[in-house]
Every structure is written in C-alpha cells, then in structure tokens.
Specification:
The structure is a homodimer of 418-residue chains.
Chain A (H helix, E strand, L loop, with lengths): L1 E9 L5 E8 L2 E6 L8 E4 L3 E5 L1 E6 L15 H16 L2 H17 L2 E8 L2 H11 L2 E8 L10 H15 L4 E7 L7 H10 L4 E6 L3 H11 L3 H8 L5 E6 L5 H9 L3 E4 L1 H6 L7 H6 L4 E3 L12 H15 L8 H9 L17 E5 L11 H7 L6 E6 L2 E5 L2 E2 L4 H13 L6
Parallel strand pairs in A: 1-4, 1-5, 6-7, 7-8, 8-9, 9-10, 10-11, 11-12, 12-13
Antiparallel strand pairs in A: 1-2, 2-3, 5-14, 14-15, 15-16, 16-17
C-alpha cells in the first residue's frame, strides 16, 4: 500500500511545497516532483499538509454524558450527575460505542492519536483498532471499586494484560493512576513499582482545592506525593497543572515530566488557567488535551489549541506568548515517538487542510491561520499510520451515521433531547 | 414572499417544536401545525431554530489584513504593519470587496446583523444591501486625516449624508468616534452634539495603558471623558471595556450604556479579560463582538460566544457564571430593536442549525450545545429580513468563489501566500 501526496504546502520540519511518498505505514520520501507509482494519489495543491495532532488527555467514552449537566459547580456536577450516571450506564458496550464516536470527532479535526483514561479500556483499544486511530489506553486506577475492577491490584494486573493483548504499532498501554486525591500513597507506590517501562498518565494540580485538600491530608503538595511515591521517575504525563507553583515547575523540570495543557475544561469548570508559558520557558515539554467530552464539550483540537494560545497571551500580558508556531508544536507533540513530524522515516500520520474557507482568505502565515483562524471543516483528508481514514471530509470505511445513531439511542435513556 | 419553517426546535421566547410562518420581512405566526401556503418550505425537523446572532463590533473590511502580522506587540502591530498597510491599500474597492467577504463569513456562523466601524462605510452599506445582511455602519472618526475624510467635521457631515442615503429597514447609521485617545475633548463634544438621535459606537477601556495615557493627558479616565463630552447621554455602545473599574461600571449603569464584549481580540492582543460577569450583574446590557478579522482572526460568532462564557467562569472561579442560556442571550441581543427574538411581529432574522454533527451527539440541553459544542459547519440555513441567504450551507444568490478570489488577488500584493 502506497500513497503519494502531491504539491501540498508542508509545515514543520521541511517547510514549503513538496510531494510526500508513503509506503506501508511510513513516510518514505519528501521531495519535489516525486515520480514513484502509488496506489493512491492525493492532490494537495493549495492545501496545507501537516502532521496529525495528538490529543494527549481525554476520556473518550464520556461522549455519552456530553452536556448532561453544565454550568454547575464541580462537586454538584460530579456527585449528582456524572458519578450516578457512570454507576448506571458505564459498561463494555457503552465504552466501545461512545469512544468510537469520540474518535471520529477527533479525526474530523485532524487528530491522529489520543491518550485515554477510563474504564473497560480494552473496548477503547478495539474501537481504535477498528477505526485505525492511534491510541494510548490506560485503565483508570482509583482506590474504590470501578465498573470493571474491584480494587487497585486488579487494575494493575489488568494494565499488564492490556499490554500483552494490545501493545502494537498503533496502540500503547499506559498506567493511569487517576490522581493523588483518589489514591493512597501506598497505592501510588504500588503503581510506581509496577509501571517500569510504561507511560504513566495522571491528573495533577487541577484545582486550588485539590492542592489544599492534599496539604491537609498528606502535609505535602500533589507533586511531592507523586515524587515520594516514585512516579516522577517514570515517563509521566501530567494533565491540567493549573494550580502549579514555582516549586512544582522546578520539580517538573528536574524530573523531565511531560505536561498536558487542557485549557477549555479548566476554564469551563472554573479551575483557572495553567501557567503554560512559564512551564514552557523552563524547557518542559507541553502537549495539548481536550479532556473528556463531558467537560469540554467537544473534541475539536483546533479550538483547543486556539484557546491554549490566546489565554496565555492575556494572563501574561504578552502578545508574543505561545505564538502560532509554538502552538503548532504543542499540538503536534505526540506520545508516539515516531509521529508528529513530516519527516522521512516517521509514521505516516498526516492531515491535508484545504484553504478555500472564508477564514483562510487570505493567509500570510500558515501557522497563524491554523492557530487563530482555521475551522475543523477545513480538514479534508486524514491519514493515520499509512491508511487514509478521512478523504474529502468523508470517512472511507466507517458508517458514521450508525455510530451516531447508537450513541443517541443510548443517550435517550438518560433523557437526551437529541 | 412567504416562508414556512416546519417542525424545528425553537429557542428563546417560545421554546419547543413549532412551525414559523414568515411573510415579507416579518415573523407572522409561531404555532404548531401551521397550514398557511408558503413560497418556500424549510423542513427543520431534528434542527434548532434560533434568532440570528448580532456581531456588535467589527471592522469588516480588515479581512484583507487577516493574519498579516500576528504575535507582535500591539504598537509594533499597529505602527509597523497595520497603519502602513492601511495607508497604502484602503480604498473604496478594497472596503467593498473585503467587507463583503466578512459578511459571508459572518452569515456562515448564523450572524444576521453586524455593527461596523471603518472608512468608506458607504461601500460597506452597498455590500450589505447587495448580500441582504443587516448592518449598522459608522464612519470611523479620528482627529487625523483618514483615507476618506480630511478632518472631524468632514467625518461628521459624512455621517449625516450616510444616514440620508442608506438608513432603512436593514441599514442603520451610527456615529463612530474611534476612542478618547484618538480624539480631543473638543472633537468628542462636537460629535456628542451632532449625534442626537443616532446610535454611537466607540472603543473604551481596551487596555490598561489606554487608561493610564488618558489619566496623564486629561487627568480623568476614558469613561469620564466620554461623560463630560456628553456622549454617555446618547444610545452608546462601548466596545471592549477590559480595564473597567467599579466606578466605570457604575457610570455604565447610571447612563444605561450598552457594553460589547470582544473576548478573543482582547486575549490575542494581550489586553486582558473584561469584567463582563460583574457588568451583567449590574444590569447592564451586554452584546458580543468579534472585532475585525485582523485581530481575531476569524468572525465565527459561535467561537466568540464560547470563549466569552468560558473565560468568565475561570476568572470568577465560578462554574455557573455566564451560563449557556445567558450566552445565547448575549449573542442574540441585537442593535436592531425588532431583531434577535423568535416572536410574532419581529423581523424574520432566523437560523436553522442541523444536529447531525458529532459535537451534537447527544444533546441534553440545546443552549449548552450552542454555547459549548456547536461548530459553524452545523449552521444550515440563514434567513435575514425574510430572505433566505444561506440554504443547506450554500449561499443562494452570491458567488462566494468570486469574492474569495478578489480578496486573495488583492492580498497577493501585500505578500499573502494563499
């Protein structure tokens, strides 16, 4: 299987008008006027060609609860709406169908890879394999019974078996301890020991009150709890980081942790704005995440990237903060090492963005266009791991109407209007 | 000319599934199962039917400069990029073509009306009449020579002649003194005297430094300058209001001024976030504005409304602040008195939003969907003043490709890439 993308304006490593030749799942060649024969030819004239984005923090099955209860205080939302609904409606079938919907929504805005934390993650893996999307799946670990694990030990052993069953070119398995407020220090230590060689994905410093609660309970900050458990020594991804102090940021730097910026969810749940500009100035790798569709309420990565840049300018009173090219780099930073760049030898995770929208008229700088003007409607074609998933805005081998129908039918039972 | 919109889920005044019967430019009847014969029938089953939004602050012709120079400090942007480009490229033809592009972009996201401030506003009026969009046009008045007026007196008399020529059902003419930092107190007084019976549209408290400069120059704050000139006694719309103190807000309340929230531009230019939640709690009418496409960089009102709600929650640490229904009310607040509501006797300014997108799956609350999830791709049909302008995502009687082509050709001379 080979694909030739002709005459697109490429962004990133090698900027300019090039052809890209894809063989199997890899970018084989980037050059002008490539003559190789290909099974598929994509005319990308007057289009941008970009690496797909990586949505590094979501709970994709929660699309069932999208907009179920908005404009409520976090605790009211969780205790009176989300937790009771999860107890009643989260099961294998729900996770399979609802995460599938989210994957389609993500691909629609040029997202080729996502990092997920929820329950029944084997269903997320199955859906991702079926659709052809790259996923980092992690069974959410908490100190209570979850819909599919009785306790922490069971969730740990489930993570190992997920790895045995699914780890591949397109699926990675992460350890996903939920947070320092839903796990004891003993449990966190257990997870730290078990997670050698794994990616670790967790929530930290999401709100001021989380930090205050932690100080009360442990006499230390969440980052110190993670450090003392041994988790900062892992390849760890820290989602949110809103209430991070300079000490926290120093610790992120010292341990070379990864930070996932989740701006819209943090705004919507009134948590605040993470000090991302400061974190980046400390040389810490920053990724973008949408959070789950219950707290966003969409998975449009272009929207997320836009807001992530705009709010940093405002809170730093600096128009130059997190500029358009930096925003692009944050969006294409990938949890998969060989993804996120248009580079020979890298995975063929590529999106074509057509430039015929009003918002694309005119374009002086393609990074500015993507960061500040583009709409996911402009995403035309998405290739993941060498396979064309979306072509001219249509999914090639997925019945998207059926997926929507199934989710809507399920949501009607929870009282959805549409 | 009559239109019947069948079986849509109506939002606002009368919520639920209704038919809407439109005769000439008015909503004649809202009821279940309307039997009237109509020239056009729109099937709105499984769609939302909403009043069109009003973009109350823009400089629509500036689409030519969209993304011309981003991520720069405000003064660098203005002095080294925008002002020199304006001096060279702003003329009648440019304003006509580039404002037309902006109108199409606005209609695409269900905007039926806009309030504009720029130069050669007669061209904006002509374009609006041609497209069928409602516009409040205002020749920008400053103390210097502009591309079409030699001085303040000329701009004042031009405003009167615009009113004589264009004022109608769909075009209003406003007095548009630019700001307290581009006009002397004498000029502002002259404009206050001349503007009896007019809408007045101005920028105020956009940045901290504007206020500091004003304090230095006048020993009073911009709002006090406007008050002392007599402008607050007019039907005045104050754009931005970021650096507003409690005293300023009291003055807005006392004089019943209107406030236009312009959140994305304020973020992007690092001006900050207007205290909109506090302003609304004081009973002051708030409208939404995108600002011009050179400082946004798109005119998508759904994006603007989303950000306007989200940032208020975050800066107030209150998840309930500016909730979804309030956001809808801000978006539909119209400068035209008989627009912005689905109500018998009101102007037929109506949009149909289809609910078949991923982001619309599922919907528990249609206001939440619009505020937190919807994409302008979901806007299917837009009716302005009783005429169908957009139908099933297509403009009926406008050659949008030609408009884009013309703007692109013009932008190439400024160095545009696409």
């Amino acid at each position: 299987m080979s694909i030739l993308i002709k005459n697109g304006y490429c962004l990133g490593e090698q900027e300019g008008i090039y052809d890209i030749f894809i063989e199997k799942n890899k970018i084989k060649k980037i050059d002008t006027n490539i003559k190789e024969q290909a099974d598929d030819i994509i005319d990308a004239k007057e289009c941008l060609v970009i690496p797909t984005f990586c949505n590094a923090h979501t709970h994709s099955a929660m699309s069932l609860f999208r907009g179920l209860a908005d404009d409520l205080s976090l605790m009211d939302w969780l205790n009176n709406h989300i937790f009771p609904s999860e107890a009643k409606y989260v099961n294998k079938k729900m996770v399979y169908i609802c995460s599938k919907l989210s994957m389609l929504e993500m691909i629609r805005s040029a997202t080729g890879c996502f990092m997920d934390m929820y329950f029944f993650e084997e269903e997320v893996a199955k859906a991702a394999l079926e659709i052809g999307m790259k996923g980092v799946i992690g069974e959410g670990i908490i100190d209570f019974k979850t819909p599919d694990c009785a306790n922490v030990d069971e969730a740990i052993s489930k993570t190992f078996s997920l790895k045995r069953e699914f780890e591949s070119d397109t699926i990675k398995v992460a350890f996903s301890p939920h947070s320092t407020y839903t796990l004891t220090e003993d449990s966190l230590k257990k997870i730290a020991e078990a997670s050698e060689g794994f990616i670790v994905h967790t929530h930290v410093n999401e709100t001021k009150s989380e930090v205050e609660l932690c100080m009360e309970k442990h006499k230390k900050r969440p980052m110190e709890v993670l450090r003392d458990a041994g988790l900062l020594e892992r390849d760890i991804y820290l989602a949110h980081c809103v209430a991070s102090t300079d000490d926290d940021i120093n610790m992120m730097k010292q341990y070379k942790t990864n930070v996932i910026n989740v701006p819209q969810s943090n705004l919507k749940l009134a948590s605040g704005i993470a000090p991302i500009y400061k974190i980046m100035k400390n040389g810490i790798d920053v990724f973008i995440g949408t959070d789950g569709p219950a707290s966003n309420n969409n998975l449009d990565i272009l929207e997320e990237l836009r807001v992530s840049s705009l709010v940093q300018k405002a809170i730093n009173y600096d128009e130059t903060a997190v500029d358009a090219k930096t925003t692009f780099q944050i969006g294409t930073n990938s949890v998969f090492e060989t993804s996120g760049k248009l580079k020979e030898g890298f995975d063929a995770d590529i999106a074509v963005v057509k430039l015929d929208g009003f918002e694309a008229t005119p374009i002086f700088n393609p990074y500015s266009y993507l960061a500040y003007a583009a709409n996911s409607r402009d995403v035309s074609t998405v290739i993941i791991n060498g396979k064309i998933i979306l072509k001219n805005g249509e999914f090639l081998s997925i019945d998207e109407e059926k997926v929507k129908f199934d989710v809507k039918a399920m949501a009607k039972k929870l009282g959805a209007m549409f």
